[in-house]
Amino acid sequence: MKDIKTLFGKKVKELRIKKKLSQEELAEAIDIAERNLSKIECGKSFIRAEKISKLADTLGVTPKDLFDFEHQKDLEEIRGELISYIKSDDKNLRILYQFYNIIK
Q1: Fewer CB within 10 Å: C terminus or N terminus of the chain?
Q2: Which residues lie below 8 Å from residue 88, measured CB to CB, with a gap of 6+?
Q3: How many CA atoms lie within 13 A of 96 on its CB side?
Q4: Which of 47, 3, 2 is nearest to 16 (CA)?
Q5: pLDDT given at position 72
Q6: Which of 72, 20, 78, 63 is nearest to 43 (CA)?
Q7: Distance (Å, rounded) from C-alpha 55 to C-alpha 10?
């Protein structure tokens, strides 16, 4: 698993972009320097504990959501899980193939 600072930074950046905020706007809203937000998003720094609630409120999520990294899997991890799923049962392969045909 990746470093928590890196995962947290990716999550903050993802949520900021989803909310259509610039780094400058988010930094101002949570009262930190823009360069510090940049360091947080790059995984080089971590936000101070007292700013977590304000960050979550500004991004429209709960503090717990900021630490939900389950969806941030590496492509190799995802590939491995899918391959294991396919190999486990022919029925699984058929189901996955049906999904593939729907979304392609």
Answers
A1: C
A2: none
A3: 13
A4: 47
A5: 67
A6: 72
A7: 14
Residue the block writes with tokens 């991890």: 77
Contact in structure between 40 and 46 (CB atoms under 8 Å): yes
Q: Is pTM beyond 0.85 here?
A: no
- Condensed to tens digits (0 to 9), the pLDDT of residues 37-70 reads 999 999 999 999 999 999 999 999 999 999 988 7
Task: Note the residue count of the chain.
Answer: 104
Structure tokens at 6: 């890196």
Give 43's DSSP letter.
T
Instruction: Give CA angle at 4 (43, 13), nearest 5°.
Output: 45
